[in-house]
Amino acid sequence: MAVIPGKNRENEDDIERLPLVLERLKITDSKKLLVLDLNGLLVHTFTRSKKVQIPNSRSPDGTIGRKVVFKRPFCDEFLRFCFQRFDVGIWSSAQKFLQDQSDCTNTGMKTIEDRHKPLFLKELKKIWDNQSCDLPWSKGRYTSSNTLLIDDSPYKSLLNPPNSVIFPSPYAVEHVDDDGLGLGGELRVFLDGLAEAEDIPSYVASHPFGQPAITDADPNWDFYSEIIHAFSNDQ
């Protein structure tokens, strides 16, 4: 998954251009698995053509193809914290990056927010069943009881079990006072408790965090329920 370099040289070049502090994934017998999104959680990436108000104090930390990359404040500290407390993977729905778009489920639909943006799903079952030759563990090592996905897009988790994902509000470079990843920040505090919890679903259920999951109370439930019905039948 995330922190193991791929065999594709182009992937490695992309990683080298992104100055994140990542260590090799360390698999243990007791740590829970933390699966992190990239854009909107650790960084903000966008093409220069987008009208983004970049603070005068910021300059890009790197590039990926035609996109500029701005690391979120305290990103490096946060990753070091995560590697100390958890087994860690990074799963992005961007192309050619770590556990990437090819590992997502393509619904063939577009998101409600952007009619040009493909709607991809991140199915944790693919991790639990070890459906990738690059994942350094056997099937059954991780389950819904010891895995947490963190992603800022609730729709990507339509097929995952309840309380296996949290959805922080998306980070953008305009958020100059953001400290969510820092010591004492809300996400760090949440994860400190999670690391000590007996199981992840119970902890998530009793510690609501970020955006709500998509349920039948969502105003766009008819749209999302069609996706759930169509792709649940493929399980």
UniProtKB/TrEMBL annotation:
UniProt protein name: Mitochondrial import inner membrane translocase subunit TIM50
Domain FCP1 homology: 27-194
Entry-linked PROSITE patterns: FCP1 (PS50969)
InterPro entries: FCP1_dom, HAD-like_sf, HAD_sf, TIM50
One of the GO BP terms on file: protein transport
Native organism: Acorus gramineus
Cellular compartments per GO CC: TIM23 mitochondrial import inner membrane translocase complex
Family: Belongs to the TIM50 family.
Compartments (UniProt record): Mitochondrion inner membrane
Subunit structure: Component of the TIM23 complex.
Membrane topology: Single-pass membrane protein
Keywords recorded for this protein, A-Z: Mitochondrion, Protein transport, Transit peptide, Translocation, Transport
Family matches, as Gene3D superfamilies: HAD superfamily/HAD-like
Keyword Protein transport: yes
Function: Essential component of the TIM23 complex, a complex that mediates the translocation of transit peptide-containing proteins across the mitochondrial inner membrane.
